[in-house]
Amino acid sequence: MEKQTQDTLESCTRSLIPIRDTLDILNGKWKLPIMFSLMFENLRFTEMQREIKGITPKMLAKELKDLETNHLIKKTHIGSREDIVQYAITPYGRTLKKIIVEIEMWGIKHRKKIMTKTREKTMAQV
């Protein structure tokens, strides 16, 4: 029995390592919105900043660099000017599309559930 418990614990630990790795790469509140926005079109820095409400230029630059380091997006210089760049999701980054859509769907259901519970609680207090 103890051997089986040890095997289960080791198996669980082995499963948690890749989950932790994934969460480390996609951590924070900005990386998934950046990835989501790039799923539809390539964007320049200022376009992305306008699309992702609330992100500061400094934070956007940091998150883009992290995503580029992890090969999820690529930066391309446009024309002859070095200061104009465009960001695109890589084929490797596109492998996250199903995960991002599933997170979106779960978030929609969760928000609906919480809002329903909040309304029910409010109505019960009236």
Short characterization:
With 126 residues, this protein is mostly helical. It is built from six helices and three strands, in the order H-H-E-H-H-E-E-H-H.
Give structural notes.
Strands 1-3-2 form a 3-stranded antiparallel β-sheet. The protein has 2 domains: 2-95, Winged helix-like DNA-binding domain superfamily/Winged helix DNA-binding domain (Arc Repressor Mutant, subunit A, Orthogonal Bundle), CATH 1.10.10; 96-126. The protein has 6 helices and 3 strands; from the N terminus they run ααβααββαα. The relative contact order is 0.10. It is mainly alpha-helical. Helices cover 67% and strands 10% of the residues.
SSE layout:
Blueprint (H helix, E strand, L loop, with lengths): L1 H24 L5 H8 L4 E2 H7 L5 H13 L3 E5 L7 E5 L1 H4 L2 H29 L1
Give the C-alpha Rg.
20 Å
Q: SSE order, as H and E?
A: HHEHHEEHH
CATH A-level architecture of the largest domain? Orthogonal Bundle
Instruction: State the helix count.
Output: 6
Q: Give the biggest beta sheet.
A: 3 strands, antiparallel
Question: Which bin fits the share of residues in helices?
Answer: 55-70%
Q: Give the overall shape.
A: flat
Q: Strand order across the biggest sheet?
A: 1-3-2
N→C terminal distance: 55 Å
Q: In terms of structural class, how would the helical and strand content be classed?
A: mainly alpha
Assembly form of the protein: single chain
